[in-house]
């Protein structure tokens, strides 16, 4: 959990400015999908955590297809 927090801060929260709490919340939602379904993880042999799901990816937004 601590590593996730460091990564979200470095890759998203400190990387850009947000004009509102709603903008930040929306960005975190999209970033979490990227983190779990697309971003390579060293602890998972370079695969995203969702690659370990039995049913595969089911909530990918159109911008990631």
UniProtKB/TrEMBL annotation:
> Integrase catalytic domain location, by residue?
1-49
User: Entry's InterPro entries?
Assistant: Integrase_cat-core, RNaseH-like_sf
Q: Where is this region: Disordered?
A: 41-65
Transmembrane feature ranges: none
Q: Which organism is it from?
A: Streptomyces pristinaespiralis (strain ATCC 25486 / DSM 40338 / CBS 914.69 / JCM 4507 / KCC S-0507 / NBRC 13074 / NRRL 2958 / 5647)
State one Pfam family annotation: rve_3
Q: Which GO terms describe its biological process?
A: DNA integration
Q: What is this protein called?
A: Transposase
């Amino acid at each position: 959990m601590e590593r996730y927090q460091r990564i979200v801060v470095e890759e998203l929260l400190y990387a850009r400015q947000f004009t509102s709490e709603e903008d930040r919340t929306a960005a975190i939602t999209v970033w979490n999908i990227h983190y779990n379904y697309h971003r390579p993880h060293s602890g998972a042999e370079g695969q995203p955590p969702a690659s370990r799901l039995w049913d595969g990816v089911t909530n990918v937004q159109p911008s990631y297809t």
